Amino acid sequence: MTKICFDKFCFNLKNIYIIIIVLIGLFIFCNYVIQNPLDNPQKKCAKCITRTFITNPINTAGMNTIRSNNNMISPPERSYALTRRSMPPQNGNSIPINTPTRGEPTNFQKVGVLTNNSNDPDNARLPLFGRPKYPGSNDYDYYVMDGSRNGNKIAIDSKKELDTNDEIAVPSFNGSYKVSLYSYDQPKYIPF
């Protein structure tokens, strides 16, 4: 075999052919990756779905008012005159406002019925909605909806958890109402 020699080292012709074949293969592989960007994980494809983040939040103050008026399970509350524009921006450079420190409260749910033996057929039975103030709390928030066509929500001032056969007074209604709570939704034993 012929040898090609430089100053201090020599190459065998067989080794030179192997190096040339490896360089040609590397060249072909690099051209293939550049021409087919879908196979290259570092390049983004045009068909891929990318998530864009909105830098300007949508003002939903009016939408929340409409939602709370039309939703039967939203609590009876009113909004402050403070609008979203007058609040500090939520870009991480401000102090968070209204952050629950004891955990997020659960949604209101229909927990029972208030009954009264009055002559008013519209308000003889009132649906009772409630939730704990925070997870694991003994304090509860309750409200009822009157029997009118508008379905007005009336908050109840009871701070403790109500139980079946408790007597409570509902503001703006005469007399006391008797509480009838629903049973809990729990797993049932089915012997199959």
From TrEMBL:
Listed InterPro entries: DUF5755 (IPR043929)
TM helices/strands, residue ranges: 16-34
Organism of this sequence: marine metagenome
Keywords on record: Membrane, Transmembrane, Transmembrane helix
Keyword check for Membrane: yes
Name of this protein: Uncharacterized protein
